[in-house]
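Re: Re: ligand-bound prediction request (bumping)

Still looking for help on this. To restate: I need the protein modeled with iron/sulfur cluster bound, output as structure tokens. Inputs repeated here so nobody has to scroll up.
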Amino acid sequence: MRSRDWSLVVFTTLAQLSVGIILWFTVSAFILNNASLLTETGLSFRNPILLALVCIGVATVVSFLHLGSPANAPNALNNLTNSWLSREILALNVYILGLCLVLLQGWVTGSAEHIAYILMPLCLIGVGLLWMMIRIYVIATIPAWNSWYTPLSFVSTALSLGLLTLLVFLLTGAAIIDEWNTRMLLLVLMLVLFTESAAGFLHQARLEKLDTGINDLSFDQGFFYKTFLVRMALLTIAFLIIFVVILDSSLLLEYGYSTWLYPLTGLIALQELLGRLLFYSSYFRAGV
Amino acid sequence: MNKTGVKRLAFYFDSSACSGCKTCQMACKDKNNLAIGQVWRRVYEVSGGSWKKQGSAWRQDVFAYNLSMSCNHCEDPICARNCPTKALWKRQDGIVQLDQNLCIGCKYCAWVCPYGAPQYDPQKGVMGKCDLCADYIDEGKNPSCVDACPMRALDIGDYEELKEKYGESDHIYPLPDNSITEPSICIKAHPNASKPDPMVTNVEEVKLA
Amino acid sequence: MAIRPTLEISNTYTGEEKMIRTGCPSHNCGGRCLLRVHVRDGLITRIETDDRPGDTVADPQLRACIRGRSYRHRQHHEDRLKYPLKRVGERGSGKFERISWDEATDLVAANIKRIKERYGNTSIFIPYGTGSYNQTGGRWSAERLMNLYGGSLEYYNSYSWACISRATATVYGTDVCGNQRQDWLNSKYIIMWGWNPSEMRDGTNSEYFLKEARKKGAKVICIDPRMTMSAVSLADEWIAIRPGTDVAMMSAMAYVMISEGLYDREFVDRYCMGFDKSQMPQAYQNEESYRDYILGTRDKQPKTPEWAENITTVPKQDIIRIAREYVTAESAVLYQGYGMQRRAYGEQVVRAGCVLAAITGNVGKSGGWASGIALQAGGGPLWNVLPVLENPTGAKIPSFLWSEAVLRGPELTKKEGLVGVDSLPHGIKMIWAVASNAIVNQHANINRTIEIIKDTSRLEFFAVQDNFMTVTAQFADLVLPACTQFETWGMEDGWKYGEELIFQPKIFDTPWETKSDYAICAAVAEKLGIREEFSEGRDEKQWISALLDEYREHRFPNLPSMQEFEESNIGVYSRPVDEPKVAFKKFRKNPDENPLPTASGKIEIFCEEMFNRNLPDEVPAIPKYIQEWESPFGKESEQYPLQVIGTHFMPRVHSTFANVDWNREAFPQRVFINPLDAQARGLKNGQKVKIFNDRGTVILPCRITRRILPGVINIPQGAWWNPDKDGNDIGGSVNTLTSERWSPFAFGNTQHTIMAEVEPLGRHQ
Ligand SMILES: Nc1nc2c(c(=O)[nH]1)N[C@H]1C(S)=C(S)[C@@H](COP(=O)(O)OP(=O)(O)OC[C@H]3O[C@@H](n4cnc5c(=O)[nH]c(N)nc54)[C@H](O)[C@@H]3O)O[C@H]1N2
Ligand SMILES: Nc1nc2c(c(=O)[nH]1)N[C@H]1C(S)=C(S)[C@@H](COP(=O)(O)OP(=O)(O)OC[C@H]3O[C@@H](n4cnc5c(=O)[nH]c(N)nc54)[C@H](O)[C@@H]3O)O[C@H]1N2
Ligand code: SF4
Ligand code: SF4
Ligand code: SF4
Ligand code: SF4
Ligand code: SF4
Ligand SMILES: [Mo]
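Reply:
Sorry for the wait, this slipped through. Here it is.
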């Protein structure tokens, strides 16, 4: 990975976290009790809308670091007809605007009534943003990215990080969530993680077969390969933790969750970052 | 020769005659005042083959050839299609131009172009790219690199006319499939270009930016 | 006036930018090309090349190479020398202070005077230095000055061609044995033997003519330890050969031709001497003939392809095939590069090549080639016409042996090539290096050289005149800032070949306190009281004007005048070669009426002069393969198993341009090593490695490349020596490793003959 791509690692991860948060809160708003989901509607970190906004806000600021001429940024909307990047930037703006509106609405009204329906359109915009983000990277000329893995990895980042945030919110907050629901959410998380690791292995196998045309660039050794192994190990550990927790009610209902929830959050966040790092490191062009 | 009225300007490159001397690269750097790290025209060294000892004799099937590349001013420029700002655009005569005043320096074009043509200029914060010496073309002159080549391995002209003059373009390693961008370049392959397991062997000289 | 009629060029330009046609500064670069220099506000904005219409084989454009095209970054380099500098620390400490020109010229003049009076004129030396051949620039005016002041110790031969120029003449009696290059288009088979014109040019357009020759059906093969740029772009086939063993392959080829009866018997009978017993000169009837040697009549070792395979690593089938192809080709060129004669016994390979050319009957015919140094028939470039005058001392040493003359001058005799005097009573006491980096960087065995020149009791005064603080200049007592060739008047004709003269008008005023080489010498002449004699009342421009007349008289009758050159901004005068001249044509037609300028009048395969050297093992009278003093077959290979060559590199002219960023980017300095050798040493591509022998250590990143024979590494010559705190050279000058030993007959530099070992750079470093 080229050092200047760091900002993109941060941008995509945070943006996907933001969309993931909105996604899961929308879904759970339909399933769970509306009011209990949003205990805070104002300027509080217990307000998931604000959290999503902060994430995307930071992501956007960081993404500017990637631009050589940020002053020209308004031009980025010039090519909506052809360019997915242009569209993504538009979607990003609309998404941020949407988040602001929802936040404002909650703040002003001070209630979370009808939140599921309010979140619905925002959620759709988020998914649209995610989709455009994916399209940017699925390009014929970059063999490592031009595969099923790109959508899968972007979506699963959103899903896993979003779900994790939801869990943290629910378990540590005042939300009323029962054991069964918690188990269900954890199961879903397990499923996402499983998919990620299976996809990770398959993708790695594919990468190793690609002809990079460059002597010094190969995916089956060196830093890339080691990072890959570390990530897979982290995934496995996270997977096992959840497995244990699901079986052990005492852990599941533990007070404070310091023994597993926070470590799990750290593990998953770290492996997502590593995954993204690997993603950008796998860049090479077809051709010259 | 005055090129006005041409529909699809294209390069001709004779890989069989190219020595890899990089005079074309330097002509371009000088004309465009390029900083270190910017190689709008660059020369790839491709080689392959191996050595075997038999008694005291060394037998080898080593081969090599060169590929001098700039921007290919593609018919279907994936760079322009994907550029969010429309800083990249195609002129009537086929030249894919870059307007640095529009560019935000997102470097996306550098990702997508399969020829390594757009290169980021950290000093200016924008992309740079071969413009086929559009100013020279407008004056009826050849691009700087074309008239530089001591081997006379480069030429310029209308794509169709070039093909008539030099024959159908060959597709050689490590060029990507032409269908991705339909590059406006007509290549004469080096005889070695058909040998197995070629490899770009001067990566540090060509992938600078 | 015979300028091209189709040309429409004016010297007035719209806007403020001005375009000036001029010669690429005439360094010793292998070419002479035309530049179009665009200038605005005292700065070059860009440089282009020859734009004359009608680029034909007879009169091709003189297209510049990468170095001419990057000249802007040399011309406007921030490190240019700006003021005269006097050493204040120890020699080589790099401590200097700025002084005035008055003081500087006083210093030079006073030292010339003092040393002349104390030790005699032969203690003053103006060494080999090839930075400028533009007539008024470079070392020539210093030589002229000295010759007007009693003379100096002169040198003969060169770092380039010591063996080839000397040895060619032993065969043909002359060095003018090359056809004009356009004649290559008449050839059917061309062997580029250690010759790499794509990279070293060897006359602008050599590579282009070869391309055209191939178009006309010539088969081209390249015999070189490296798959060179030329092998890639000009050859149908590359034969990898172990360095220093070419005579073995050449002898085996002769063996095939002789044993299969393929050689041109009639030609040999009529035109050669020394081929076999019947042809030996009267006084040497019983000596070994060439045929004897090849068939092993006396040494019991027939020079068979098997024998040669063991020595050269070239598969014997290839040797046999190439011998047959060469001898049966209707006409063939065996072109010898100069790298293989910059070696131990470099004389032998030159002579062996000439003999092959002769016994295949390729001498004196169109499409053929006599091999050897092959200066152009019909008169080639004159290189230098500024009258440097006779050297009153007559004393000469081989160019490469100056370090010996400093170290142990009084001991030097004829045996070390001293001529003109019986001895040098005090050796060299003063060196005035003009346009030369050949005191340190380009001379062999840098660590040794430094010790020699640091000793102020031997070398009492050392002045260096250059554009940059070169490795040589760092050791000077006095550094004189010369302007570049864009800042004075000059002209140049071809490098070895070509039918043109390029005019070099002064483009810029001399910046800072720089002066032209001529002006510096004139100022010194003033202090010595011989300004009038030195200048004959002329400045640089007037000299060029006068020298143009000289050229008009001796070479180009239709040459434009100075004024015509200036007003037309045409830059170059060229004479088309429609019917290329063929060397030895008359000789071939009738050898009795037109004998060669040799003793026998024939092609001398047996060399009487060499015989009389009485060193049969090192200077045999017929060309022989001799194992080099550092070789993979010797004991030294146990410790240092790799042969090192230091080839001439595309981005540089020797050490010139080594400090230009664009050129370094295009071709970074590397040690080139075969994957098998790299693997055996656990090296990764791009990794920094140590290359070392008893003489020194170089540290460089490696480039692992299949394009070099296993057992051989290449450190392109010319990178600037740059010692780290342990004395290891991290600049990558191959001369950190080379040996000061010279070849036995021509006293030539043998810098390509060395061995070394490579290892990965330890972690602690
Ligand atoms: N190991 C090894 N060593 C070699 C060789 C080799 O093959 N292997 N090759 C040898 C050969 S063939 C040669 S010819 C020599 C060349 O050796 P040199 O003659 O020393 O050539 P350069 O290194 O180019 O140094 C020329 C100097 O002249 C300066 N210069 C340029 N223009 C001017 C000018 O107008 N005025 C003044 N005053 N200075 C100017 C440049 O800055 C440069 O420092 O090297 C030899 N050294
Ligand atoms: N780009 C560039 N061009 C130059 C110069 C420069 O510095 N840079 N210098 C100019 C000058 S002054 C000169 S004298 C000429 C020098 O021209 P050359 O002396 O011909 O050049 P080299 O690179 O020393 O050697 C030429 C080839 O000989 C090969 N070689 C070395 N040893 C052997 C051997 O034992 N056998 C065989 N068969 N091949 C061998 C090398 O691999 C190399 O490819 O170049 C001129 N042209
Ligand atoms: S100038 Fe010509 S021969 Fe040299 S690298 Fe470029 S295309 Fe090849
Ligand atoms: S070569 Fe690359 S930059 Fe040039 S037009 Fe084609 S896609 Fe665009
Ligand atoms: S870097 Fe500039 S030219 Fe390239 S895609 Fe981005 S905006 Fe367009
Ligand atoms: S056409 Fe002009 S800009 Fe393009 S590579 Fe050639 S010299 Fe450079
Ligand atoms: S060959 Fe010599 S004269 Fe010609 S451009 Fe190169 S450096 Fe200049
Ligand atoms: Mo030389």
